[in-house]
Design goal:
Number of domains: 1
Structural class: alpha+beta
CATH architecture: Roll
Strand order of the largest sheet: 1-5-4-3-2
Helix content: 25-40%
Largest sheet: 5 strands, mixed
Strand content: 25-35%
Shape: globular
CATH class: Alpha Beta
């Protein structure tokens, strides 16, 4: 895969999440993809990736992502995405508020054989929770 193909494939994954298009995810994500930052209770592989999408869309039914930046090196892409959506269902323990939120996420995705085979991601959940008006209470013990 060349740099442009990797960029297009990554953008197509983000677009497929926004469109809830599992057929595109099936084509672009390996069945045994390794998610290095899974959500709680997320299964392994492509099923786990789809679980994350379904969970995110329960919280934000109109969730859409916009790819803002990408950098490609070798078989990896680093991407910055802005996610936007209306908070309608549970999100990190906060019941739906009806508020529109916008937050950034950063990904590193490794491709092989034209599919995403490894995924690292982090999102500004604190920023999203702040927009929702959630009370952020420090945990002095540092334990969950």
């Amino acid at each position: 895969m060349n740099d442009d193909h990797i960029r297009r494939s990554y953008a197509a994954i983000i677009a497929a999440i926004s469109a809830r298009d599992d057929r595109v995810l099936d084509k672009l994500i390996a069945e045994d993809v390794v998610d290095h930052n899974p959500a709680p209770n997320q299964p392994h592989g492509l099923a786990g990736f789809k679980y994350w999408v379904a969970t995110a869309c329960q919280a934000f039914p109109d969730l859409t992502g916009t790819v803002e930046d990408t950098v490609v090196e070798g078989a990896k892409v680093a991407g910055r995405v802005t996610w936007r959506g209306t908070h309608r269902g549970p999100f990190v323990g906060v019941a739906g508020t009806g508020k529109v939120v916008e937050f950034a996420a950063f990904h590193i995705v490794r491709f092989a054989d034209n599919r995403a085979v490894e995924w690292w991601g982090t999102a500004d959940l604190l920023g999203a929770l702040t927009q929702l008006g959630a009370a952020i209470v420090p945990n002095p013990t540092g334990r969950a």
